[in-house]
């Protein structure tokens, strides 16, 4: 279901749709620019408002899932590049500054500091 297209077909503003459905304008704005998707209860509310039947809904769900998979794939690729860029920069720094015999222990120490949480925080900042 493309909310923006359905809304525009009916000559509704985002505020009109928000008022008619009880869904906040901020949520509608977010969904229309692709930053998230409606939760089940909001999806059902929109489906009822726009008069979309289940067969239309199933087709829309497949399209939404395809779009979400593409976004996830792009994020995974970005995450991989960030991690690789970080490691290359780290290794270059170590090579420049340290005696080769100390390099291995410093590498291990630095990699441990790059926790999963830190990595996820970087991804979340990129999504925003």
TrEMBL record:
Pfam families: HTH_3. It comes from the Bacteria. InterPro entries: Cro/C1-type_HTH (IPR001387), Lambda_DNA-bd_dom_sf (IPR010982). The keyword Manganese does not apply. Residues 3-57 form the HTH cro/C1-type domain. One of its GO terms (molecular function) is DNA binding. The keyword Phosphoprotein does not apply. Keywords: DNA-binding. This is Helix-turn-helix domain-containing protein.
């Amino acid at each position: 279901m493309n909310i923006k297209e359905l809304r525009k077909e009916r000559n509704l503003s985002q505020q009109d749709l928000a008022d008619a459905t009880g869904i906040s304008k901020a949520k509608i704005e977010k969904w229309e620019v692709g930053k998230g998707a409606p939760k089940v209860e909001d999806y059902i509310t929109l489906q009822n408002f726009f008069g979309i039947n289940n067969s239309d809904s199933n087709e829309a769900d497949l399209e939404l899932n395809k779009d979400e998979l593409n976004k996830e794939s792009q994020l995974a690729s970005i995450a991989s590049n960030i991690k690789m860029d970080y490691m290359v920069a780290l290794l270059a720094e170590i090579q420049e500054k340290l005696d080769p015999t100390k390099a291995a222990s410093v590498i291990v120490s630095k990699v441990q500091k790059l926790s999963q949480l830190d990595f996820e925080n970087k991804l979340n900042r990129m999504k925003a």
